[in-house]
Structures are given as structure tokens and as C-alpha cells.
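User: I'm writing a short report section on ligand binding and want a predicted complex to refer to. Could you take this sequence and adenosine-5'-triphosphate and write out the structure as C-alpha cells? A short remark afterwards would be nice.
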Amino acid sequence: MKHIIIIKYGELSTKKDNINYFLKSLKNNISNNLSDIKHTITYDFGRMFIDVTEEDIEKTVERLKCIFGIHEIIVGFISDEREILAIKNNILELIKDKEFKTFKVVTKRSDKNYPINSMEVSRTIGGHILKNIEGISVDVHNPELLVSVEIRKNEVLYYFNGLSGLGGYPVGTLGKGLLMLSGGIDSPVAGYLTIKRGVKIEGIYFESPPHTSEFAKEKVIKLSRVLAKYNSQVKLHVINFTHIQEEILKNIPHEYLITIMRRMMYRISAIIAHNNKCNILVNGESIGQVASQTLTSMRVINEVVKMPVIRPVACFDKLEIIDLAKKIGTYDISTLPYEDCCTIFVPDHPVINPSSIKAEEYEKLIPYKELIYEAIKEHEVIYVGVEEDKTYEDIL
Ligand code: ATP
Ligand code: MG
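Assistant: Sure. The C-alpha cells for the complex follow:
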């Protein structure tokens, strides 16, 4: 008997007409992720099989746990012995060290020419298990151990309870989005939730040197690196926001600093998204969290772009966001103590009910179009992978 990894799809199986597209993408995503591990992948509409050497099983399973589109990961066994006696003995060998009080056997025959029907195979195996292991019983509704046997044309497949995968859709199947990524807790979580829906993300980060430090930028790169585990490489656009922010600070009434600053961020993000074939903007705004996230603020800020803005954590409590940040591995990085450009320019009394007319009037006080073009022209791109990142200079 040898190991085989089996993947079940979950929500993907509900895709009728274009299931092939989703499965092909999932296969490619897995293949890319396992590029350093020798493997072969085969699949049908029910599941995917990944064959790797014995010593790579654990590493492979760890990687699969971070890939969207996978509902369940099972390490099963495959054998070319198809006689019922061999099947009975193999099962016993496989379960003898497992701890369980109740079990159930489910048999499938993809080879309908097999001389014994599925029910009969299950019954025979069940009887054999009961005879050989003491203190256990059959529970057909809620068994602790589910023994699955599949009789195929040239082999028999055995598997037991699997591990949960992340679910969602394979990354890239729904196109691309641009994540406004600050060093905070919310935006990486927003990014993760978007990737989960099959959207590949690129990141955009606004920095204001020397008001913000290199450490703040490092923190965003580190967050991108965590997201890259789920997304594959993250293309991170870094925008120097200093000139725009200083102009805003100098010329605009302070209660509108944040409103105008965020309208500028939105405008720049929409252009970068457009230039990079991203269909949506994504950010970590959460209703009511700060003055710029009241409903009126959101409306006045959102007005400057036509592109849809997805806010995956808009309706989450902070504690729910923190829980998820801990689960995906971004929390410890997000809580490192480095200022970002928003926190530095927070006025004492930001407006909570801004008016669009006033925002438009105030914006006329600065040459914002020129400032935006300048910032975009100068912007830096960093490719952040799980392990190493590359700048343009490294690549060219
Ligand atoms: P987070 O919301 O990620 O915890 P934060 O609380 O510092 O960070 P907010 O002031 O709540 O950020 O801003 C709301 C959203 O705007 C962020 O979630 C992020 O998507 C975006 N944003 C804020 N600052 C920046 C920045 N410097 N660069 C890119 N996006 C930013
Ligand atoms: Mg926030």
C-alpha cells in the first residue's frame, strides 16, 4: 500500500457549466505551490489526487492547508490488491492503531464489474473489524471513524476522516483586485477574505517618508508575505504620499484632512487598479470604526471613484477581525509599533458628517491632479513572495 493525497472540492462542485475552468485553475495553483516538490496531479469532477513521495507528504499537506478551493484534505492509501480477503486485511492493518469507539464503512465501486456489490463489501469489512477489535460498535449516523473504500479498475483506495481545507474558490478564477494595505489589523484580513473568493490581489501602500519610517514599510512587506501564502506572489505598489499629504496639511481645514486624504488615496488606487487590470478596490474599512468610516464619510470618500469598492470586514466587530487576523498569521505583524501615514496626520476633531460640496471646494485649494500624476509616475513596485521579494532592479 502506498500513500495518496485526496482533495475534495466542496463549494466548487456546485459550479456546473464552468467546473472545468475552476478545476484546471485549482490544479495549476496547486502545481505552482508545489513547484519545489516532485508531484503528479490527476482529477475528476469528484476529487483530485496528488501523488508525492512518502517523505514529502507532510510538507505537501501543510501547503494544501493554505490553498483556496479545497474543502477537505485526506491522506489515503492505494493498493493494487483487489480480492476481498486482501481488502479486509489491509483495512485492519490501517486502522489498528487508530483510537475510536464507533465506526462506519462506506464502499464505492467505480468498477461496476467487481463481483461483490458495495453494500456487501461494507458489511463484510464491518464484520471483520468488529471481530478483530474489541470495545467498538457501528454507528451509521455519527461515527467517530469513517472508513471509506473505493474499488477502482486496477486498484483499491482507502481513506478516513480528513483535514478541513480553507474552502473558497481557487485564486485568480474571479480576476484581480487591488487591496489598500496599511500596516493595521483590518486590511490584511480584508485581503485574505477577498482572496478566499477567488480574487487574486495586488497591494497598494501609501507611505510618507520621512514622517513614516522604513520599518512601517517593512511591516507592510511582511504582511504581504503572509498574504502571498494564500495568494501566491503579491505585487505591491508603494506610493510616496508625502507631497500630497503636506499640501493637504498646509492648505485644507484640519477637520477635513482625513476626508480629503482618503479621497486622494481612492483616486490613486483606482488609477493603479485600472492600469493593472484589477476590477475592484478592496480595503479594511469597518462601519463606525473611526470618523472616516461613518456612513456619510464612506459616501463622500467613495464618490471620487467609479470602481466597486469591496469592504470585506465592513460588518465585522473588531474582535472578530482580530480573531481572523490571529488565525491567518497577520496579527503579530500588524501590532508591531510603527506609525503609518494616517495615524500621523490625525486631526483633533475630524469631521464625522462631511459634505461633498465642501470636500470638492477644499480640494480646489491644492493642485491635486498634478500631485496624483506625479505620485503615480514615481511609484515603486515590489514583488513579494512567500520567502523573498524582488524589486524591479533585481528583475531587470
Ligand atoms: P487597518 O484598517 O488595516 O487596521 P488602519 O486602522 O490604520 O489599518 P484605517 O485608518 O482604519 O486604517 O483605514 C481604513 C482602510 O484604509 C485600511 O483598512 C486600509 O485598507 C486603507 N488604508 C489606510 N491607510 C493606508 C495606507 N497607508 N496605505 C494603504 N491603505 C491604507
Ligand atoms: Mg481600521
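A remark for your report: The mean pLDDT is 93. The two ends are 49 Å apart (CA to CA).
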